[in-house]
Inverse folding.
């Protein structure tokens, strides 16, 4: 008669750190018939394998005395395993083996498990699917037991079960609905407070001849403003994914990808900034490319934020670009560890992401006409943003237990909000502004009002003259009414322009202009009635021309 192994899974709120996990392990392994104990500290879940059925009620009461309160989580029918699942079998012919794996979240999890299981004797091929929570193994000779597979992965993050669909994959770390509301409310509250004190305004002016020191200060300011949102969000994603994959690494080890990201960013800015100074506008993205990059980066951030909160649907994860497994394994085989190329290149690639400060300095670099000057300008700026990015990366890598779990979830909510915000900004840069509903009626207009003459538009020698000033607070005024078929002279005072607002963009007009400190003139003739939007280079500040039919 075959012996049976009984599998139990419990959620334990008090499983806050490795020390508490060790204490719980000591209590559980002291019980008779318990042959295995696995703990997943980040998800606060444990799994127990016993040779006999456990009295769950008595177990809960016993552990409650030690301040461990268990909540049993149901498992599929295969949670009762026969001895054939524990003891190794042997097959002289290659045969397939299916197992379920709980705790996988991403493509990196697949690579990690595949690499560990490929080292097991008899395993010829491994194919892991994180979305389905399953793995297929091709084995020959001695068939590895579930315990052997689990031992290869270690205890803590992944839990291996008999074949079938995953019993409790990413749902274990999913915050409750009320907690999600609280996280998003906190993000909005902090953003509101920062905005109230003017901390999100890009208010540094760009002169015609800036020193390296001044540009470094601009980088410091940019890192504390909303203009660093894309880079900061991507860094959080990189750090979070690395922590998921190497949960047992030391704090210094988990800071490695953060350091590489920042180093890659500084070096990339220097090299590309120098090239920009040499070749000019050839490397400056058009408004259409800028908008596309903004929206794609925002979409990536949105999916990553959902994944960090463990609420990303599998079909969204599959949309994310990823390196083919064969190439990834070859790179990792080359040096026996994760290649530093990815975070380095990721950091360098932020040069092309639509941070308003970056774009303003890219346009500034065009005027230098020199590789050295362009490299110094963009390199000093990237170096100025480094302290804030390193601090953000350290916080995401060093915090553990309840604090680490909260920061991870808060970061996910923050990345989602930044993603939504940047989608809105990208649409504005593309010439299709979308604004959230406002709780006022100040923006409501009617046809009669539009037909009235605009006091901000004067007629001189048949030319419609529009005067607008630019400041860290936005455009003043920001709305104008003009007639189609008549030339427009747009006089822009850029004396107080700074940050992304120092770059004026209007895709319908073909305008992408770095505003000089002082008067700037843009001339155009509207052809057809409608709305002609304009914005800063990041889409944060917006305005528009309402073009009326010819009189």
């Amino acid at each position: 008669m075959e012996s049976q192994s009984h599998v139990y899974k419990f959620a334990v709120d008090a499983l806050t750190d490795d020390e508490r996990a060790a204490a719980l392990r000591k209590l559980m392994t002291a019980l008779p018939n318990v042959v295995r104990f696995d703990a997943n500290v980040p998800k606060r879940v444990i799994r127990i394998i016993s040779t006999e059925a456990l009295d769950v009620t008595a177990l809960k009461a016993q552990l409650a005395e030690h301040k461990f309160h268990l909540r049993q989580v149901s498992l599929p029918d295969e949670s009762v395993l026969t001895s054939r699942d524990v003891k190794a079998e042997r097959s002289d012919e290659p045969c397939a083996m299916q197992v379920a794996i709980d705790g996988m979240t991403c493509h990196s999890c697949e690579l990690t498990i595949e690499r560990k299981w490929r080292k097991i004797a008899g395993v010829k091929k491994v194919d892991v699917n994180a979305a389905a929570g399953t793995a297929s193994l091709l084995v020959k000779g001695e068939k590895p037991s579930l315990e052997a597979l689990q031992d290869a992965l270690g205890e803590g993050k992944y839990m291996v079960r008999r074949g079938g669909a995953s019993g409790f994959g990413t749902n274990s770390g999913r915050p409750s609905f009320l907690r999600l509301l609280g996280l998003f409310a906190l993000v909005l509250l902090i953003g509101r407070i920062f905005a109230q004190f003017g901390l999100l305004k890009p208010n540094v002016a760009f002169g015609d001849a800036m020193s390296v020191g001044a540009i470094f200060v601009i980088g410091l300011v940019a890192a504390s403003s909303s203009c660093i949102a894309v880079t900061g969000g991507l860094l959080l994603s990189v750090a979070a994914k690395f922590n998921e994959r190497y949960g047992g690494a030391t704090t210094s080890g988990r800071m490695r990808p953060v350091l590489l990201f920042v180093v890659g960013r500084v070096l990339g800015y220097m090299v590309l900034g120098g090239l920009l100074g040499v070749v000019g506008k050839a490397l400056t993205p058009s408004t259409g490319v800028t908008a596309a990059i903004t929206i794609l980066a925002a979409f990536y951030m949105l999916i990553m934020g959902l994944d960090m909160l463990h609420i990303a649907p599998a079909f969204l994860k599959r949309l994310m670009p990823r390196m083919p497994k064969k190439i990834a394994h070859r790179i990792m085989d080359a040096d026996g560890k994760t290649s530093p190329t990815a975070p380095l290149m990721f950091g360098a690639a932020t040069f092309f992401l639509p941070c308003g400060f970056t774009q303003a300095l890219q346009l500034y670099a065009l005027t230098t006409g020199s590789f050295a000057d362009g490299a110094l300008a963009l390199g000093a700026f990237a170096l100025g943003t480094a302290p804030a990015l390193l601090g953000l990366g350290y916080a995401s890598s060093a915090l553990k237990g309840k604090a680490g779990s909260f920061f991870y979830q808060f970061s996910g909510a923050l990345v989602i909000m930044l993603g939504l915000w940047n989608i809105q900004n990208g649409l504005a840069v593309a010439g299709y502004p979308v604004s959230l509903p406002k709780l006022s009626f100040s923006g409501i207009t009617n046809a009669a009002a539009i037909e009235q003459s605009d006091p901000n538009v004067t007629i001189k020698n048949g030319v419609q003259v529009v005067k607008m000033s630019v400041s860290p607070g936005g455009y003043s005024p920001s709305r104008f009414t003009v007639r189609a078929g008549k030339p427009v002279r747009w006089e822009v005072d850029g004396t107080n322009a700074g940050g992304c607002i120092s770059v004026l963009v209007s895709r319908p007009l073909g305008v992408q202009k770095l505003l000089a400190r002082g008067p700037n003139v843009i001339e155009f003739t509207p052809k057809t009635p409608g709305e002609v939007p304009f914005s800063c280079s990041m889409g944060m500040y917006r305005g528009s021309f309402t073009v009326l039919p010819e009189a």
Q: What stands out?
A: The chain has four domains: 4-81, 83-172, 174-429, 449-548. The chain has a mean pLDDT of 74. DSSP finds 18 helices and 19 strands in the chain. The domain at 83-172 is CATH 3.30.70.100 (Alpha-Beta Plaits).
